[in-house]
Specification:
This protein has 440 residues and is an alpha+beta fold. The chain folds into 2 domains: 310 residues, Chondroitin AC/alginate lyase (Glycosyltransferase), CATH 1.50.10.100; 124 residues, no CATH class. It is 41% helix and 17% strand. The chain contains 14 helices and 13 strands. Strand 1 and strand 2 form a beta hairpin. It is elongated and about 80 Å long.
Length: 440
Amino acid sequence: MLASTVAACPNLWAQDDEFRVYTEHPRLILTAQRLRLLKRERERESQRWRQFELLVKGSANLPEPGFGLALYYAVSGDDAAGQRAVEWATGKADDLRQLALVYDWCWPVMSPQQSAALAAKIRRQLSEKPTGDGLLARRDRVLALIATAGDPQHPEEAPLEDFIRQWWRARFAPALADGRTVLSLSDVYPLLEILHAVRDNLRIDLREDALDYFAHLPTYLIAGNYPAPYRAPENEFRIPAYLGSGQPDLQGAALARAAGLSMVAFDNNGLENQFLQGWLIQDRFLMMTPLGAPYEFLWANPYQPGLSYYQLPLVFHDPNSGALFVRSAWDEDADWFGLYAGEAQLFHEGRVTVVNQGASGSSAPKPLQLGDSSVILGRAPFQFSMEGGTILAIGLKPRQKYLVETDDEEMREIQTDRAGTFVLQYPPGRVAGIRVHEES
């Protein structure tokens, strides 16, 4: 009875949520447990710490100086680094997220005048700048509201309640859940910062509003990368799928890796996250760049065991969004097929080719074979032969019912997903012809 009541009223328990911030500084990301881990890494002079320290002490041009210097101060206690972060934040800087991190992490080293000036600057930005409906703007505001909370009247309460109840629960989470919103791998990182900040300070796990999405998110963070790594001067990168042609976006690759590390940190007991940890923890992908090194040090946990991602299925399919990634194997020279944001791609011998969906016009389209999986590009009616395994038909009408006839089997009805894809499973070695018709 209780389970059915909760299923019918998913926000039943949300009525008692508390939107006031009572936690002490640091409130954002640097929980007591995480700080202990980071200080332990500093004491043992791990490779991640040494690289981060080298960049800070060498006055490297950090793309996010407030974030990097404030993190260094919080872990090392180096007052000079903390003051550099505060001076940056109280100067001409206007990055609301970084201002919030400096205010929160450098709280002990700020004078009352500096603290008041920075808090006023942050609140001025909160009041003067348009709210912004994008994920980045929402993330920045949440971090700023939590960092500067402290007034006995709790002015953070109303905007945080509006964010969670009106934006997250009523709009954004449902769009994630039903596939209307699909985040690129690099855009997942700000989502994770929101999850951490809200759970650590309000004791609300936002994943509960889109359980299916967050259940497959760790696998998405693995499957959505091309097989072959990219060898940059500092380190190797796994490259997330991107639309069109052009050079890989290494900043996006760094943020995608940070998203994965942050996902593991959010729930290190989850089975899917243990596979993700196995994917991430290889040292050759350790980020050494001025952008990536602070994130690498902040989120990576070398003490967390991981499971081999070779045990994961070679096909990732999200029927809600239509995202589809297929590999021939988990080796780095494997073939890969992706269908993402309306674009189909084939990765073969280190090159990406955009596939024109459903353009063959043939009654017998030739399948793309990737290991035990076959990707069919065609428009109904069409027919083809197969030899078992997973059959993925793409390029059809979204949310449309089709009739599938397989030799020596009864006709069955199947419906495509949001992207016009359906999936069929056959025993290995099952040789048969398949005919597909649109249901009239």
